[in-house]
Amino acid sequence: MKRRSKFDIIIAILDVVSGGATKTKIVYKANLNFNLATKYLDLLLEKRLVRINGSSYEITEEGVTFAGKAKELQI
After folding, report:
1. How many domains does the structure of the chain reveal?
2. 42 assigned to some structural domain
3. pTM for the structure as a whole
4. What are phi and psi of 51, to 5 degrees?
């Protein structure tokens, strides 16, 4: 099985949170463990690509733009 790059993991997380998602949903849908999910969500929050709304993570406008451009670059 091919290892995913950090870029691939970020795109997977942004796809999951595009409709709003709890950390548990992100872990299962993006196929991550909680430690990795926390690490990447912290990074995405810092870069303002996602935001927290209550107990749910949501994608920001910047995140939507980034995800669109990132998908164009994926091979």
Report:
1. 1
2. yes
3. 0.91
4. -140, 160
Q: How far apart are CA 24 and CA 68, in angstroms?
A: 24
Residue 11 CA neighbour count, 13 Å, CB half:
14
Query: 15-43 burial by CB neighbour count: b if 16+ within 10 A, else e?
Result: bbbeeebebebbbeebebeeeebeebbee
Q: Which two tokens stand for residue 18?
A: 């595009």
CATH value at residue 28: 1.10.10.10
pLDDT by residue (tens digit) across 15-32?
Answer: 999 989 999 999 999 999
Tokens of 45: 């929050």
